[in-house]
Amino acid sequence: MKEWKQRKSNGLEHWQIISVFLVVYDALAIGLAFLFALWFRFDCKLSMIPEEYLMAYFKFIPIYIVMSLLIFWRMHLYNSIWRFASYSELMRTIIATGVTFLVHCVGITVFFNRMPISYYIFGIMIQFILVLGIRFSYRFVLLEKSRKVSRQENKSGKRVLLIGAGKAGRMLLRDIKNLDRKKDHVCCIIDDNPNKWGRSIDGIQVEGGRDSIFDCVERYNIEKIVLAIPSATVEEKRDILNICKETGCELKNLPGIYQFLSGEVKVAALKDVSVEDLLGRDPIKVNMEEIFRYIQGKKVLVTGGGGSIGSELCRLIAKHHPKQLIILEIYENNAYEIEQELKRKYPDLDLVTLIGSVRDSRRIHEVFETYQPELVYHAAAHKHVPLMENSPCESIKNNVIGTYKTAYAAMMNGCQKFVLISTDKAVNPTNIMGASKRLCEMIVQSFARSIKEGKVDKLPFLYEHADSKKVIGNKKMPQDIKTEFVAVRFGNVLGSNGSVIPLFKKQIAEGGPVTVTHPDIIRYFMTIPEAVSLVLQAGVYAKGGEIFVLDMGEPVKIDDLARNLIKLSGLKPDVDIQVNYTGLRPGEKLYEEKLMEEEGIQTTPNELIHIGKPIVFDIDQFLEQLQELMEVSYANREDIIRDAVQEVVETYHPAKEM
Fold first, then answer.
1. Mean pLDDT of 141-157
2. Beta strand 579-581 with 200-201: parallel, antiparallel or unpaired?
3. DSSP letter at 373?
4. What is the C-alpha to C-alpha distance for residues 488 and 112, in angstroms, rounded to an integer?
């Protein structure tokens, strides 16, 4: 404050000095503009100008200058920051010029003399050019100065190839140029439209189509490639990115059409190209309005709500205004993270977060009796194949018996729908985890058939603690049970806990090697949002007993996946990062299947979602075997557990030790 007072006492502010200069300049410019107009009118010879015109000009021009300066002042042409002059300043200058033009025409014509038509036209044109020119030239000089500095800085920065000469590409190019950055300097543009080849945008040449990418990278020493085609199809992006990844350049991508429509085509909106972008499959489309109506106003329980699939289910469910969302999770850290996230994003959400295991009969029945959920998404499960091979009894306890107890509690407490999260590893399983998920599917089908056939009283209450029977022993079986049970089967989920991608990324970050079990191993892949969308859509379609299967497109070689991740990191496979083959692990197959031979396919309203027809089996025998499995698993008989499972799941063929 003291400095400000001292500066005020010493003299004018800098902007005030500029304003005084502009006033003096405008006075001279306005006066000379109409004198030049007369001079031009009479062949640029002062001697040829009639005396009556000169006298009228000299008498009126002092009055006109004063009036023009007042109009300019009223239009705020003396207190703008002209280094940031833009459309607003241009419009105010145009309006001020128009008003002064009317003043001049009326004033000199009415009170002094009628002047030649060219005098009025050329006079106001020269005035406008002189007044506007001095103001915008200041910004132009500063802009050129900053561009020179930017070009000097960019000599040591990253050189960029921009793919896409459409609206999004132009917006992104200008944002890169406007940012005071030492990193980015766009050297050339690529676009598949031949009509744009050889032309330029803001001085940057459009060199050619995607076939020119390698040539441009070499010729311009490109270090970064930016893909700015938000309207491109998944296949088009895949094909372009598959070319770009071979260049070794850093890759950036504008996520999608949403950023373009919302005006977020900026450097900040760019994201790293992920391996998902290279898979090139159209994402699954679901009827979100249908799902919204289905979830809205209902109590929803998600078991395993802190896991990869469970947490994404919770996020999507929370968006659709459930009456209450109940999260049941055994791992408290995951439960805490998703709880805090949902509380921040949805402060009005009725959220209940509970710690507990689906293996605990007493706990699971207490949860259902207390909260009475109408919809259940059962995502709680052990999913790591190698770990479950080493602990097969735990796989049966948690996945199989836990699913049965949760399904039984849902049925006994009037739940409307129970959706099981299954896996393609349940088809002709060679590992205990896959076999356990097939048993879960059979449990779902058993409950569905028992309800339809009116035989729910034959469904046993499984428990392992002596006092667990008290939890439900005196509770009567509800009348007219209508719970619908359904399973959703899909492949590997990119980015989920246990996915190969986080492992590969960690190995790459550590300098390698990247370990792949077999060069020919293939898997079906989908993203977490796709998996969750399928689960929610299946809940809408469910009538009871179905196994929903996603059309996941073509399978992907894990070896290609690993090598693409290395390339996306700007490194070369087997040069910078070694790829080692370790051999198939116990219970691991070279390929996964979506359906067993006995299953058929039914269509649904969504062309990417199919229904596997239920395989008929003896439910009474299955339930007896299930109780035996529980006893064997809780006795921790790892020596006979696989044989016991194989008796129930005939398609289970344990892999031999490698």
1. 55
2. unpaired
3. -
4. 91
Q: How far apart (Å, rounded) are the C-alpha atoms in residues 561 and 313? A: 26
Closest CA to 68 of 119, 18, 25: 25
Q: Answer left, alpha or beta for residue 379, where phi above 0 means left and psi between -120 and 50 means alpha.
A: alpha
Q: Where does the pLDDT of residue 410 fall: very low under 50, low under 70, confident under 90, or very high at 90 and above?
A: very high
Q: What is the pLDDT of residues 332-366, one digit of tens each?
A: 999 999 999 999 999 999 999 999 999 998 999 99
Whole-number Å distance between alpha carbons of 581 and 147 = 51
> What whole-number distance in Å separates Cα of residue 422 and Cα of residue 493?
12
User: Is 263 exposed, middle or buried (CB count within 10 Å of its CB: 0-12, 13-18, 19+)?
Assistant: exposed
Own/partner contacts of 568-573, CB < 8 Å, gap of 24 or more, are 568/245, 568/251, 568/272, 568/273, 568/274, 568/275, 568/278, 569/508, 570/248, 570/249, 570/250, 571/248, 571/508, 572/248, 573/514
Name the more confident of 454 and 147. Answer: 454
**pLDDT of the residue at 179:** 59
Tokens found for residue 446: 């058993």
Report how far residue 641's alpha carbon sits from residue 359's, in angstroms, rounded to the nearest whole number: 18
Q: DSSP alpha helices (H): ranges in 112-200?
A: 117-154, 167-178
What is the arithmetic mean of pLDDT over 103-132?
Answer: 81
Residue 493 pairs in a beta bridge with 526
Taking the C-alpha atoms of residue 434 and residue 355, their distance in angstroms, rounded to an integer, is 26
**Amino acid letter, 171:** M
> What is the longest distance spanned by two Cα atoms in the chain?
122
Other CB atoms within 10 Å distance of the CB of residue 211: 10
pTM as predicted: 0.63
pLDDT of residue 156 exceeding 60:
no
Consecutive H or E run containing 449: helix 432-452
Give per-residue burial for 171-206: e unless 16+ CB within 10 Å, then b.
Answer: bbbebbbeeeeeebbbbbbbbbeeebbeeebeebeb
Give residue 524's identity as a one-letter amino acid code. Answer: Y
What does the block give as tokens for 42?
């009479």
Q: Residue 208: which H helix or E strand, with range?
A: strand 204-208
Bin 587: left if φ > 0, else alpha if -120 < ψ < 50, else beta: left
Residue 161, classed as helix, strand or coil, is: strand
Pairing label, strands 492-494, 525-527: parallel
Sheet holding 299-303, edge to edge: 351-355, 324-329, 299-303, 375-378, 417-423, 484-490, 547-550, 609-612, 601-603
